[in-house]
Structure formats: structure tokens, C-alpha cells
Amino acid sequence: MAKQKVDSLVKAWLDVELNENGKNLTQALNELNKKLNTVHTHSRINEWKTNRNGRGERLPRELRKYMGKRVIKSVLNNAGVDTAKLNARHFNKIVEQLT
């Protein structure tokens, strides 16, 4: 995935979590870590966001999928699509193609 796309994905994920879902960074990070069984830190999120040391370009696939899923659901919900009614398998295929 190109640097610009990764930077945009991390920023879009943060926007969804912080501004739409009303979480703070700690809550968003805790949820991500719990879901993916990881131990990423606040500083790591900032490294991804700013692509410090090329970290944003090397965003692991599972993180791209997780963030992509959150962002895509937000976009669809904002467009009036009831994502709760989407077939999970089909939705996951969309996420795979876009991340």
C-alpha cells in the first residue's frame, strides 16, 4: 500500500474513532489492541500517522484490515447504508480489496 494511502487510512481511522465514535485515543488503542491481541502504544499510532521512520509504509496487513473495516463501515453508515444488515463475508471481501 502506498504511503499516502496508509497515512490517509490511519488518519481516517483516528477521525472515525475520536470524532464519530466519541472515543479518546487510549480507548481506541485499547480496543484495537484487544481485538488484534497486540500491544501498540500511543507513540506507535503517531509514528503511523506521520510515517515517522517509514512506519506508516509498513503498517501490518491485519491493522490495515481492522482500520479499513472501521472506516468503511463509517462511510457506508454516513451514506445511509445499514451495515448491520450487510453479509459479513461480503463485507470482509470488500475490506480485503480496499486494504
Task: Give an account of the 3D structure.
This protein starts with a helix and ends with a helix. The mean pLDDT is 86. Helices cover 69% and strands 0% of the residues. It has 99 residues and is an all-alpha fold.
The level of helicity is 55-70%
- List the secondary-structure elements in sequence, H or E: HHHHH
Rg (C-alpha, Å): 13 Å
Query: Major sheet: size, sense and barrel closure?
Result: none
First-last Cα distance:
8 Å
Task: Give the overall pLDDT as a whole number.
Answer: 86
Tell me what portion of residues adopts beta-strand conformation: under 5%
The total count of strands amounts to: 0
Helix tally equals 5
Envelope shape: globular
Structural class given helices, strands, pairing? mainly alpha
Poorly predicted spans: none
Layout of secondary structure:
Blueprint lengths: L2 H18 L4 H12 L5 H9 L10 H18 L9 H11 L1
Helix pairs in contact: 1-3, 1-4, 4-5
